Amino acid sequence: MTAYEPVIGLEVHVQLATASKLFCGCPTTFGAAPNSQTCPVCLGLPGTLPVLNQRAFELGIRTAVALECRVAEVMKFDRKQYFYPDLPKGYQISQYDRPLAHDGHLDVAGGEAVKRIRIRRAHLEEDAGKLLHDPNEPFSYVDFNRAGIPLLEIVTEPDLRLPEDAYAYLVELKAILRALGVSNCNMEEGSLRCDANVSLRPSGAAELGAKVEIKNLNSFKAVKDALAFEMDRQRRVLERGEAVAQETRLWNARAQTTEPMRSKEEASDYRYFPEPDLVPFHIEAAAVERARRELPELPARHRQRLVEAYGLSAYDAGVLAQFRPLGALFEQTVAHYPKPKPVVNWIMGDLLGYLNGRSQDPETLVFQPAWLVHLLEAIERGEISGKTAKALFVEALERQRDPQELMQGRDVRQIVDAGELERLVDVVVSEHQKSVADYQKGKANALMFLVGKCMERSQGKANPQQLKSILQRKLAEPREAVS
Amino acid sequence: MPVAPAALTLHELREQIAAGALDPRALLRDLLERISRLNPSLRAYIAVDPERVLAQLEARLQHGPRGPLFGIPITVKDNLCVSGEETACGSQILSGFRPPYHATVVERLLQAGAVVIPRANMDEFAFGSSTETSAFGPTRNPWDPARVPGGSSGGSAAAVAADVAIAALGTDTGGSIRQPASFCGVVGLKPTYGRVSRYGLIAFASSLDQAGPLTKDVTDCALLLSVIAGQDARDSTSAPMPVPDYLAALSEPVKGLRVGVPALPSDGLDPQVAAALEEAQRVLERLGMRPVPVELPHIRHAVETYYIIATAEASSNLARYDGVRYGWRATALPAGPARGGGIDASSAQRGLLPMYLQTRAQGFGAEAVRRILLGTYVLSRGYYDAYYLQGMKVRTLMKRDFDAALAQCDALLLPTAPTPAFRLGEKLADPLQMYLSDIYTISANLAGVPAMSVPCGLSREGLPIGLQLIGAPFQEAMLLRVARAYEQATDWHRRRPALAAAGTAR
Predict the structure, then answer these.
(1) Catalytic: which of B91, B130, B134, B152?
(2) Deepest in the core among A64, B123, B197, B390, taking most CB within 10 A?
(3) Has B129 been annotated as catalytic?
(4) Closest residue, chain B, to A81 (C-alpha)
């Protein structure tokens, strides 16, 4: 049987984080009342003209530079023409043959080796509006708030081979875009959208197979799942001896399948031509140089530095570099409490656990490094037990308060007094004679059970290390002495 | 016999009003009276609402601004947006459309204190050279009602010629100011591309369109141009060039200037027009200007190049008229199928396609449909390189032609149109003949250079003939200076059609 190699390319639409739209002054705030953020220009009323938003242009350059693209010396806009009620002018202002940037790349960790994914181009374009269908009405509604929102479309070469590559690319791209501050990358709000192209070819073949474009991918996981499904579907088609049809398909997340949307024959002829309402833009080399100079630390460099400077594992460094608030919390905490190991453990364990439990995006985290420093210092001074610390940490997150402040006036201090601990152990031992016997018969687990019972009785305030050594000592003594 | 106010020029009225010798109300009443009397047969305006215009004047008199056009009515073509006023571009498909904004040129008129009279008739979407394609009926030529006023700014030109406008704004994509100016015996100027803002000018071909004045004489033209010219932040294609003092330029001497006389394709050129041009050249020579022969080798490709680029852009610019959001929508649409619950996007589309098709098929006139089809074709996959791209290359060559020719002279002298005004219906059935009437004007649009038409004679039938002056980019002042000198040496601009003279004297 022929082995097939998948060939994957991705087109990502990024909403640039500008205050106003790409060609007019309307605000870009998400969730406003329908058609409240519109004007004659973004509604495409007769006689109105577009004027380029300088900020969108700058954010585009910043992104292009971060993706190691070649920024065009002259870029121009073109009209992409088709009829649809959400497209007010009957064309979208986009860039066709002179995009903002081209020929860049992005390195992603794919399994063992680092894979270099080439970026074919990145171009600016305006978003369309949105149709709303009410099943009880014989008509549809149009909301033009999105019409004219600035997008940067980033297109890869077909360099990806596996759904996991696509997933890793998207994760890395999103981390970069967030590090650059060019987009909030919120998929629910549509600020990051992805279409995937996939084809199969016999392994080793140079020629590409018929390409299928998949749309309606609402999450990175959907991209991965849809690609896996589509590769399998195409393989089965080829194995039946049939040809894969070049077409656009929609991902149905509920059914976990792709469904035909339109065939190659139905594809529009967009009749691109230069947008005469906007003059070509000369991009000065100095502007590109400045953007390059002002680039923040990108995730790849950040990861490397975390490993080298703090001795973190590649995995931990990866997570901290992927989410800027986590990386910042780590580095700022370590600056005042220079023990990277416990700090990263708190972030990777308790903090991420907390966020995952609430499905909270780490990007939205608000937590002061000083709070973690105070917590760690209190543990180190032996003032609070680990268990108390965990509880305080969650409370600090929820109430946005300094754990130090939360501790004040509360009986959370750890019991360290030897006499008090001895009394506690005596009570627990007398109540759990069976476990004592088990331990003495050689069951090591019984000791931890007893430690646990002591902790429970102290409401978590006892020091488990101390308890353990007291128990070991006491249980090693002759039985008579215990009673 | 006292001269009726409406028959005066803009600059005369300006002086009289400034001196307190004329009440702007008397002027407007006279003008409205003439409109109500002459417009039903002339149809220079699609519609005029006297009450609204009078109310506008009262507002102006009370609140100003007292600018250079204070209290003077200026007529604007139906493709220049006037906030709150119906602006339909001579088309059924935009009927009922009231823009919530002023075109920048309209705003500048108002800032200068003018009273804006909207809706000068025009060819639908400016597609035509006769004003016959207007969805609201053709405009008649005031010199001979059996003839066209030219187009597409035929309403503006006829209104100025018949003294139912003091001065007017038109737009020029391929000659739409100059050719009707020539047919109606008035002055018309197409500015350099980028000299005047296009914001609020309902686009025909965005890379060619420019608004400009149609006036009774060259001084009025200079005055109106100085009001509307200048960069506009809302139009990225408007040029960041300072606006010179066009009125001051009028009195500069022309002696020693060089007038370029290009060798032109002369098939279709009426001998009377040729003779008038030769005579005009002699006048300029008598004024001390020196003729210089120049070459414009690519001008012979102007018509085909123009009809590729202009229709391509038009097909795109007119895509927005789909009946979805504003303007006219075809009625009697097939109802969407009855549906139960559940989102069914496609059902909306089942009703959508017929709505699109019927709205566009019924809402556009025959010439608009023809140009949309032509433009769609030349931009189609597989044809783009052969047509649009090739057209853009020829356009570049034409720009070079003009650069080279205008390096050797101060202004070019050409006919405006190959013939005087033709008869209504004469070319309507033959689009190619109609397109060829623009042969001398369209190259200035393709090259982006300024050009103006000035009356230079009357044919045996008593129809006006115009000469065309073309200058280097942003050299409108040079054109006005030469035109003014010519005008002072002749009296063609004082000739009025019999229609205009009715009830007035000049």
Answers:
(1) B152
(2) B123
(3) no
(4) B316
Rounded to the nearest 5 degrees, what angle is found at the Cα of B133, between the Cα atoms of B129 and B136?
130
Contact with chain B for residue A86, Cβ under 8 A: no
The pLDDT-based confidence of A112 (bands split at 50, 70, 90) is low
Q: In what order do the strands lie in the sheet containing B411-415?
A: B115-120, B73-77, B168-172, B210-215, B187-190, B451-458, B464-470, B411-415, B258-262, B290-294
pLDDT-derived band at B347, boundaries 50, 70, 90: very low
Measured CA to CA, the distance from residue A249 to residue A262 in angstroms comes to 7
Catalytic residue selected from B91, B153, B156, B176: B176
Determine contact: A40 vs chain B, CB below 8 A. yes
Q: Is residue A83 part of a domain?
A: yes
The answer, yes or no, to whether residue A478 has pLDDT greater than 70, is no
- The number of folded domains in chain A is 3
User: What are the CA-CA distances from residue B66 to residues B10, B17, B27, B70, B267 (Å)?
Assistant: 15, 11, 16, 5, 50
pLDDT of residue A439: 87
Query: CATH no. for residue A445?
Result: 1.10.10.410
Domains identified in chain B and CATH numbers: 5-262+409-501 (3.90.1300.10)
pLDDT digits (tens, 9 = 90+) for B409-426: 999 999 999 999 999 999
Same domain assignment for residues A306 and A281: no
Residue A174 covered by a domain: yes
**Shortest CA gap B42–chain A (Å):** 28
Flag whether residue A54 sits within 8 Å of chain B, measured between CB atoms: no
Q: Is A216 on the interface with B (CB under 8 A)?
A: no
- How far is residue B190's CA from residue B180's CA, in Å, rounded to a whole number? 12
Cβ neighbours around B35 below 10 Å, total: 25
Nearest to A277 among B103, B236, B381 (CB): B236
With respect to residue A413, please indicate whether it lies within any of the assigned structural domains.
no
Q: What is the largest CA-CA distance in chain B?
A: 85
